[in-house]
Every structure is written in C-alpha cells, then in structure tokens.
Amino acid sequence: MHRVGSAGNTSNSVRSRKEKKFTYVLNDSDDTKHCAGINCLAVLKSSGPGGPDYLFTGSRDGTLKRWALGEDVASCSATFESHVDWVNDAVLTGGNTLVSCSSDTTVKIWNCLSDGTCTRTLRQHSDYVTCLAAAENNSNIVASGGLGGEVFIWDLEAAHAPVSKSNDAAEDDGAASVNGLGSSLTNTSMRPIGSSNNISLHATQSQGYTPISAKGHKESVYALATNNQGTILVSGGTEKVVRVWDPRTGSKNMKLRGHTDNIRTLLLDSSGRFCLSGSSDSMIRLWDLGQQRCVHSYAVHTDSVWALASTPTYSHVYSGGRDSSLYLTDLDTRESVLLCTKEHPISRLALHDDSIWVATTDSSVDRWPSEAHNPLKVFQRGGSFLAGNLSFSRARVSLEGSAPVPVYREPSFSIPGTPALVQHEILNNRRHVLTKVTTGSVKLWEITKGMVIENYGKVSFEKKKEELFEMVSIPAWYTIDTRLGCLSVHLETPQCFSAEMYSTDLNISGKPEDDKVNLARETLKGLLSHWLIKRRQRFGSQASANGEIPSGKDMSTRTLALSRIEGDSTAENDHVVYPPFEFSAASPPSIVTEGSQGGPWRKKITDLDGTEDEKDFPWWVLDCVMHNRLPPRENTKCSFYLHPCEGSMAQILTQGKLSAPRILRIHKVVNYVIEKMVLDKPVDSMNADGAFAPGMPGSQISHPAVVGDGSFWSGLKPRQKLKPCIEILCNNQVLPPDMSLATVRAYIWKKPEDLILNYRVVLGR
C-alpha cells in the first residue's frame, strides 16, 4: 500500500519513490470459466415468472461471474472484473446490488444485472478484506471485516451518493483520487493514512461519507453475520471469540468465549437470537445471544470448519471445511449425516431451493441435493451418527476406521472451471514460459503475444523443460506469479527495458536484420494498441504526436528529471505493432496497474476506451507508448578484451577494453577483426567513442588501441586468392558465429571479471 507523502514535508529527502508497476494477466482461451478456487457464492432468485435464477461466484482469480441457471444448465452471462487480487466474499442486497470484497483492500459495489460495471469502490480498509454481511430486510446495510482488525458498517445509499458531478462510476472504478484534494474526492475512496496526511483526510470528510466503525478487534477478522433486520452484527477471527455489536452505532454488546482456535464462519438466525459458529478447532457451536452462552457444541468435522448454511427454519445446519466433507446436522437431536465428500476443501455453501451449491479451493462449483425443506428425508436414508461435544471425538472415530459413508456419490450438476496453474518456468529466451496445470497438462506460452503456442498434453514438466533449453542469455525483463491461477506478468521500470533482440531473430519482415528491438517497449505497444486507436478516435492524431500525454505537471517534472531519455525508433514506426507482439482479441489479457490518482485497477485491454491517462497509467508506460522514450538503462553493454591466441602470429589489434551491446553476435566480432587486419584501417582514424554496433566496424575503446607491426600481412600480395578465416575463442573453446556476447559470458566465460576473447587466423582458398 502506497502511503501519501506529507504536503508539509520540506526536508531534503532524496529517497526515490518506487515507480508503480504495470502487470498484464494472461487469460485462458475460455474466459467464461474461473481459473482458481471459488471463495464465495450468492444466489439471486428470479424476480418474475419465466426469468432465470442467477448464481454469483467470486474467485481467487480476481473476478466474479454471473451464471444464468436453467434445468441442468448454467451459462456465464457476465464477468465482473475490477478487483486486482482474490475476491474473498460477495453478498447480494436490495435485489440488484452486488457487493464484493477482496485482498486488494477494497469493497466494490456492482449492479448485479449489468454487464459487469463497478459503480463504486470503497477504500477504507488497511489490509485484506475477508468477509461481508448484508441484512436481508435492510438493503442499505452491509458490514465488512478484514485482516487489519477493522469492521466497518456501510450505508450503501449514503456511500453511493455523489459529492460532485465528476464522482461517477468510472472514477470510482479505479481512478478515485487518493493523494490530492480533487473536487471528486469522497472519503469512501480514501484509505486511512498516517502522520500529517490526516490533513487531507479531514479535509474530505466534511464532503464525503464515513462508515460506522465497530472498534474492538485487536487481530484479524475472518467472519461476519447479521440478522434480517440489520440490528445485530456478529464477528469472529483469530482472537477465538465471537463479538456481538449494534451495527447502528458500532457499540459492543458482548463477547462470547468457547472456541480454541480461529473462528472462520458465522451464521445468525433471522431474529438474531441464535448464532452458529465454525472454527479451525473443528467445532461447530450454537450460541444463545439472549443468555450470552454456548448452548450446544457439535464435533462433526475432523478439521477446520470454513462454511455454514442453515435450513430456512434454522433447525438443521449444513457445514463444510478443510476435511473436504459436507455434513448435515440436526441442531436439536445432534444427529449428523455425511452428505458428500469432495476432492478439495470446501470454502463456501449456498442453499438454492432443495439443492445446495458447494464451492471449493478448486475452480469448479457443484450442486448437490439438500432437501432443505424436508431434511428428515436425508436422515431416513441411514448412515447418521450422533455428533460428539468434544473436538477429538470425530477425529478418533475416523482414525478407528468407522468413518461415515456419504449419502451422495455424484453432484446433480457441475459448473466446471479451468484447471489452475501449479508450476511454471521462464525459459532462457525470456519470451516463452512453460506451465503445468492441476490436471497435469503442460503448455508453452509466448509472453509477448499472451497466448499458448504449444499444448504438450500430459508429459513430464522437467523433461520438457530440458528439451526446450537454449543456450542463450537474455536479461530478466519481467517477473511472473500465478497467485490468480493464471500467469501474471509484471513489468517494472527501468529493469523491464533491459532486454533487446535483433529483428531477424524475431522474424520481423520489413526491418533491417540488425535493428534492435526492445522487448518491453514492443510488448507495451501491443498491449495498448486498442487503447491508442480509441484515443486517436477521441482526440485525433495529435493525441500521440504532439506530446499531449503526459500532460500533467507531475509527469513533466519526472520526465525532465531523468538524466537522459532514449528514443531510438523512427517516428513513422512508433505505433506499428509487429507480429511477435500482437495480442489476441479473442482472449485478450487484462491490465492491472495504477496511475497518479486512485488505487490499482484491472481491465481487459479491449475494454479500454481511450480516456485513460496519467491518472490511470504509470507515467513511464505512457512515455514509452506515446513518445517512444525509454528511461536510462543499465547493463545493456558488455565489456571485453580481444587478444590473439597464445602462440598465434596474428597482429595485436588493441590492448584496450572494448565495449559492445550484450546482444552482439560473434560474427560481428569476426568482421571487426577482419576489417582491422585485412583493410588495415589505421586505428587513430577511429572514433574512440563510436559504438561497436551492428554494421559499424568500430569499437567503444576505453584505452588507446595499439596496432602490431603488421608483419603477418606484409608477405601477402593484395590480389592473392588466400582468404583469411578468423576464429574467435573463449576459454580455448571455438565460439559459434551466431552466439551473443551475453551468452558467451554466461555459459562459456562464467566469471565476474571482464570477458576475454581470443582470435586466430586460419588461411583457406
């Protein structure tokens, strides 16, 4: 989390602020499916005859999806994409409002029947937001809790009220100002900030809305629940106690002790008299809030209880958790039955008529029979047992081999997901990434195109990695993680601009083969090509030609502060996207980034509308894409010495250190040697500062070069048909002509000192 610098800070602090990174998330070809575990479920019943019921799912892939449900069919009718980290919980309120929370520290409000537009982003939490609770009969009230120990009670109507005309959906979806006193600011777009930053916080509180804060938790909050009227709120977390609040004031009513580990899930009855809790101590407890005590405890599970759902009359409870088992328990008789077992831990439950939706840490969702309106039917099938009241009793039974038999073997319906990535390896060419998913399938991705170029099926990941090994050395210009179940590629300046290749190696036609191509710059141009087209349509061609972006004072001062800016392509080719960098429009990647205002945001590259600017994008991205300018880069050169082989009669060309681009090929070094020897160019006519670049037989020399006496060539007549053949060696190993200096250094030289190359002459006709 970025903290805002104090406006009153006049000290001469020179600590440079870390520039914001630019991430793109590669989507699978079937974008209608989740690609990571499902963390939350919500069911919306049809509002009229003939209309479909909807299921909403929120995933660790950072998105929510709306599924239109039919008879044994479910179609994805919308994807809600704006969160930049795991979606941890979601609730429906008021008929058409969906509220979600995420590990990105935000709570987001959506029109659940829309095409997936976020209407508001609430930035009050300081850490991951883990849970939400909504009052069924009070559609305005939603509570949120998180790892920062905060519990906030939101009045959605007040939170939604615009402060000014500019306070629209687009602003809240990712561009809400956090670090200035802009007219569109409301405190709902604020994160609590420290030190003298409170000046800016208080300046906006009078204009904006502040939620009620239920203060008391000293540690992380993992579970919330409220009654139908929204008059009672319960919370639980790592403190092992159930706290009871009045959500109208945020005041504490009571604290209930009994669990011996983290409380993971809570469930209130409609009146608010009884509360069920599930804990990492494997126990389910029933609390009477009127008597302020635990009236029953149920030892049903053998591991953490993560999810609870009750029948409409609150007579029976469905429970699931880390032991991958779904149980139905009669709260009165303590009779319990195992409904089904899953392959993965159960994260969430949602009742839907006489079925129950079950979400797990896998990317698919299953529907099982529940008989919620007549649970006795399930018990009549046999196999029930009496739940103990000590947590070890169920564990002991399972160890003795008398574990219950599940009532159901197969779900009645499934919504499949995409298998999540479990392994990945960036290959040496830095353009390809090998991945393996949970099903064992191995694929090869091309990062600069965002697509799978080979699907190898179920093969050994390690063997395939060895097969694809190339002896090449290219700087690490990006990093990758698979936290969202898919490949997230992170670019950070200036490191990302360190990798270059020759156009011939990328098979780019129409460019001179010795043209250097910067991989990050071309990738950014490919990712933002749709945005650039939209921008030109909105603002005309000058949007990219006259320096209109970046327009802010903040941008220009940063740009001028750079010691030098490189722009090394011709203007007419600035915005041409070459084939190796064309991203698929059918399964476009999503961008995750942030600009000078607001917090991080996420959008598909095809959903960018051209209005995004330096408030939304990092300044260095725009400088690269709009103006073709790159920041100063390090380590793009390779220093080396060039000496004759020991015992060779070849003349000494130079005793100084040479410098050349890391990607320079050995055949260029051969050309250099031949030109110096055969053409006998006088060294003093060379420009000492000239780059040893492709096509330029010069050298960037640190010390004066000394030429030998030329005795080797003195006996040769100019027209003799003997042609010298030069071999370049390193560590007594002849180097292939297409090997780069960087590769020689990494795989042949293998020392931190400057590279030493040797040359020798072989005569041939």
Automatic annotation (TrEMBL):
Its GO biological process annotations read: double-strand break repair via homologous recombination
Q: Which key words are in the record?
A: Repeat, WD repeat
The answer on whether this UniProt entry bears the keyword Translocase reads no
Query: Which Gene3D superfamilies does its entry note?
Result: YVTN repeat-like/Quinoprotein amine dehydrogenase (2.130.10.10)
The WD repeats extend over 80-111, 122-164, 214-255, 256-297
Q: Which GO terms describe its molecular function?
A: ubiquitin binding
The record's listing under SMART domains reads: WD40 (SM00320)
InterPro entries the record matches: WD40/YVTN_repeat-like_dom_sf (IPR015943), WD40_PAC1 (IPR020472), WD40_repeat_CS (IPR019775), WD40_repeat_dom_sf (IPR036322), WD40_rpt (IPR001680), WDR48 (IPR051246), WDR48/Bun107 (IPR021772)
**Family per record:** Belongs to the WD repeat WDR48 family.
Q: Do you know which PANTHER family this protein is assigned to?
A: WD REPEAT-CONTAINING PROTEIN 48 (PTHR19862)
The protein's name: WD repeat-containing 48
